[in-house]
Amino acid sequence: MNFETLKNIIEDNNTFLLTTHVNPDADAIGSEIAMYRILKSLRKDVYIINHSDTPYNLEFFDTENIIRIFDEKKHKQLFDEADVLIALDFNSANRVVSMQKFFEEFKGIKICIDHHPNPENFVNHYFVDDSYAATGHIIYDFIKQTKLVDLSYEIAYPLYAAIMTDTGSFRFQKTSSQLHGIISELLETGVDPGEVYDKIYDQSKISKIKLLGRTLDTLKLIDSDRIGYMYIMQGTFKELGALESDTENFVNYPLSIENVLLSLLFIELKDGFKVSFRSKGNIPVNEIAANFGGGGHTNASGARFHSSIMIDEMPNILNFTREFFNNYYQDQNV
Ligand code: 5GP
Ligand code: MN
User: Other CB atoms closer than 10 Å to residue 299's CB: what's the count?
Assistant: First the structure.
């Protein structure tokens, strides 16, 4: 990727707005914090504004307490005056939900740094390549190639967390010897892998673990036990005092069962619902999500539905998924 343009834009401008997708994960927040620290070290004015609250297990990243939740009145002036808006870890304007209009109408330079396939036409400059394991991995390459800043512990820490989480702790397909070489360099700065893992995954509230139990109780296997699905109703969140962000990773559990190749998790939201898809091998679940207006990666995708009722739509989504899955296998066998 040619990062010179990005370097030039950074050098030539002063005020930067960073944002990421709804329901941010550690690649999203880690990339924002790393980019914030890179730009700050160059004495830029930097603001992070997100649609969603930061999940409680990721709050520890934000040691500068810089992340703000979008508020039209409070942030209008900033959107009017900032020079550059950087979209991190997403590739379509609807992923910033309440901020979408402001994002689209932003008059300055819009940049996307991301590793999802098929970006929408929504910014001026794309630093996008879906062969990267994480958005944090792209940011690492950017600073290494351009030598814009040194790789300090403060920058390496969120980049390590971004790559660790988006590779499923170094097991997904994009985990390579070359990636481990990068990880080695990040660890050289003093990052403690056990500490990062513990902060992100092993400091849960008991309500999350109880929610996991209730979710696993709904698990059903269909299509000769090759597809697994689960669901969570709003009432269960309320009863347990659990949050949507607590469901991160739940959808992977069915894939730990023998023969299961595709997993779905339906989550009822305050308004509408979302579905997460995960797969093993080459089953492109982003194509299934795309059919419902969503998107994502080959093995991890999702879609949100704002104006329909989950239990009414579940049969359609499951039927489409089964058909897609079976056609996919027929095609592979030809
Ligand atoms: P999750 O299931 O963890 O919410 O999302 C998995 C992946 O699917 C994310 O990395 C994201 O790329 C993609 N994704 C989830 N929901 C949506 C959506 O509503 N629209 C699009 N375009 N992608 C989504
Ligand atoms: Mn990512």
Answer: 21
Report the pLDDT value the prediction gives residue 333, as an integer from 0 to 100: 63
Task: Give, in order, the Cα–Cα distances in Å from 214 to each of 231, 237, 249, 250, 314.
Answer: 9, 10, 14, 11, 18
Q: Which of 301, 307, 321 to mutate to test the pocket of ligand 1 (most atoms within 8 A of CB)?
A: 301
According to CATH, where is 3.10.310.30 located in the chain?
206-331
CATH of segment(s) 206-331: 3.10.310.30
pLDDT at 243: 94
Q: Which residue's CA is the closest to the ligand 1 atom numbered 7?
A: 301
- Taking CA atoms, 31 is separated from 156, 242, 286, in Å, by 10, 26, 22
Structure tokens at 9: 């834009």
Binding site membership of 303 for ligand 1 (Cβ less than 6 Å): yes
Positive or negative, the CA dihedral 243, 244, 247, 248 is negative
What per-residue confidence (pLDDT) applies to 107? Answer: 98
Q: What is the CA radius of gyration of the chain?
A: 20
Evaluate: CB of 276 within 6 angstroms of ligand 1: yes
Domain 4-201, CATH: 3.90.1640.10
Cα of 218 from ligand 1 centre, angstroms: 22
What does pTM read for this prediction?
0.95
Q: Check if 19 has its Cβ closer than 6 Å to any atom of ligand 1.
A: no
Which value, to the nearest 10 degrees, does the dihedral of the CA atoms of residues 276, 217, 247, 256 take?
-70
Q: Which residues of the chain have pLDDT under 50?
A: 334
Residue 326, number of CB atoms within 10 A of its CB: 13
